[in-house]
Amino acid sequence: ADSISAAPCGFAGSGALLAGGYVLTASHVIAADDSADVPAECDWNKILVMFIKSVEAAPDYWYKATLIADDPDRDVALLQITEAIQDAPPISSLPALTVYAEPGPPTLGMQLLFMGYPGIGGETLSLSVGMVSGYDQLETGVRTLKTDAVLAGGSSGGPGIDALGDR
Fold first, then answer.
1. Torsion angle defined by CA atoms of residues 8, 126, 166 and 141, in that order, rounded to the nearest 10 degrees
2. Which of 88, 131, 134, 157 meets the CB 3.0–4.6 Å disulfide criterion with 13?
3. Non-local CB neighbours of 148 within 8 Å, separated by 6+ positions
4. Residue 117: its pLDDT value, please?
5. Which residues pair with 17 in a beta bridge?
């Protein structure tokens, strides 16, 4: 069987599966990369999403996805799964993250868990723990959250949740 790889085209990052086959990730994860070390024939309209069977294993389910919405100012993008690749199960059979609307931001000192695939973490899921250490605001007016969690490249787009999985 042919192997599937996201390299050498594009960026790699993390994301979270939501109901309906939607995937929430970071805008810069799906952005075109026009740097000199990327082949000119890369098709930036092709987005591949992968999932795991076990947190102890490398990703093994692959899907094609399309970009639904993109907000580079907030660094958020919404994808939708369009097609399973090879023997991947229907996307509706995989567990989805529930997103809760909260009346305000997480509180100072609240513990947060971050999940993702940092380049330094090998091919398996990595968990980082930190707390809300403050708030900030970008020049564009977008409010941001500060944390003391150690997050490495590749974790971008991954979910940040409270200890109960509620935020």
1. -50
2. 157
3. 130, 131, 133
4. 79
5. 23
- Show the 3-state SS of 84-147: EECCCCCHHHCCCCCCCCCCCCCCCCCEEEEEECCHHHCCCCEEEEEEEEEEEECCCCCEEEEE
Residue for token pair 């605001």: 137
**Please, is 41 exposed, middle or buried when counting C-beta atoms within 10 Å of its C-beta (0-12, 13-18, 19+)?**
exposed
Segment 13-44, tens digit of pLDDT: 788 899 899 999 988 888 766 666 666 777 66
Tell me the pLDDT tens digit for each residue of 76-113: 999 999 999 988 999 988 888 877 666 566 788 889 88
Give 162's DSSP letter.
E
Establish whether the linkage from the previous residue to 8 is cis, with ω within 30° of 0: yes
Looking at the chain, how many residues does it have?
167
Query: Cβ neighbours of residue 161 under 8 Å, at least 6 residues apart?
Result: 97, 112, 113, 115, 167
Instruction: Please give the model's pTM, rounded to 2 decimal places.
Output: 0.78
CA distance 90 to 73: 33
Average pLDDT, the chain: 80
* 152 contacts 119 by C-beta, under 8 angstroms: yes
